[in-house]
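step: validate -> pass
step: tokenize input -> pass
step: predict -> running
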Amino acid sequence: MLPPDPLDPAGWENFRPENWSMVVAPGAIGEDHSPLALVYSRFKSIHDCTRKVVEDAQLIWTFRRYLPGDEPPWPGANLRFGCLVIDLVDKSGATSTAGTSFGGDLFNGLTREWIPIGENGLGETVEIIDDPSTPQEYSDPGFLGTLPEAPWVIYRDGIHTGIQSSEFTYKPATDVRVVAGGHSMPGVVCPLP
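step: predict -> pass
step: emit ->
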């Protein structure tokens, strides 16, 4: 909340990011290679307002709670316990020089490419990375996941492959617990049946 008297400097002592319950992570413009966009809206949430721009730039909104012992979200961050940190990050690898795969074929495998943004900030081209190296994470037996710059495995089914038929199912995530409470017992966690 703004102080009752905005002209009184003493009233602004609680108006500091280290006291806020949520913050937007700052980022340096020079480090981000995403295309620029002018976003404007009236009476929309940030998600609804930026949906098309974020999708076009291949970015994703991230929300995380900052708890003691966590890595700071940015160098020198001084946040309160449980602060919600909102950030817009690129997890696609499309505009990073490490590249990612946009296509390929059965005989040559995946083609590693990256998309540099033109000098005008609007134009883009697709450039092929000639001799990609395998990332070090794939040599680590404890690593579980796939890096966007080097997709690891693609399973194809058909008569000319080792997989005759396959079936993939997707089950969307649902609620795993409900936080309930009231005046007598705030913050009680009740698992769903």
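step: describe -> The radius of gyration is 23 Å.
step: cleanup -> pass
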